[in-house]
């Protein structure tokens, strides 16, 4: 069993750290928020007085922070986290831009390991990890990641995990909007939800947004459409990921016109009150009654 430092015990970090403790690891956690510390402590995480204290003596140090600037501050700022970390393997699970992921990894044994699966996946240890970094560090960290998730994929060198996350979520936003448009058009044409689902789920329109996360109530009983679009995956979080993918497209020179259109549609939905609703709720805006 390993000694682990865990910094950032928010909605995702607290349950992830609790799952590491549950698996028998010695987890020392730190968060700026007292409520976050208490939530982690209730699940067997030991309280540290600072990030540096959580890191000292650890074999693995995880960060789960809001955005790139927090991750840069944590690893390259004045908080002594890097100095306290020695030769430990650093694992950043936050969703951040590829450039910052590469910058903080320089000269360190560091993996970028963003996740998908949301807070339910964090609670149930069923997250998917997309990992960038050296093969040997990935192999060493794999059992730690497997205590928090059910799918762990090595995507390539530093930044590759973030790249995979941004590309996947851009595709997800585009496919969700496409699925919503198809249902909105079907409604205008007098075609039932069930009929469209029956056909498209078995033909060339098939996609995850339709068959697992259907944006209309009925065909997929567990989808957020069946509970008034309570998230799930909040539009505000999708907007963050779409912003990161457009930034990556600009800096790399990739053409992503549908990604840009998805960002602008989700910005509109958020501006019309959808920010805290599930991202599949954009169907209501596309129907013209948000
Ligand atoms: P959150 O805001 O609930 O948690 C972030 C925590 O970091 C907060 O508790 C905050 O106090 C703490 N923090 C900030 N700066 C700190 C510092 N210097 N030292 C110690 N603690 C610090 O956010 P979250 O929902 O847990 O998301 C974390 C990351 O995971 C984000 O990058 C997000 O994009 C990504 N993510 C979230 C979800 C989701 O469904 N919530 C899904 C996938 C990925």
Automatic annotation (TrEMBL):
Domain 3-hydroxyisobutyrate dehydrogenase-like NAD-binding: 159-286
Catalyzed reaction equations: 3-hydroxy-2-methylpropanoate + NAD(+) = 2-methyl-3-oxopropanoate + NADH + H(+)
Enzyme type, top EC level: oxidoreductase
Keywords attached to this entry: Branched-chain amino acid catabolism, NAD, Oxidoreductase
EC number: 1.1.1.31
SUPFAM superfamilies noted in UniProt: 6-phosphogluconate dehydrogenase C-terminal domain-like, NAD(P)-binding Rossmann-fold domains
Keyword Oxidoreductase: yes
Any matching Pfam family: NAD_binding_2
UniProt xrefs under NCBIfam families: HIBADH (TIGR01692)
Protein name as it appears in the record: 3-hydroxyisobutyrate dehydrogenase
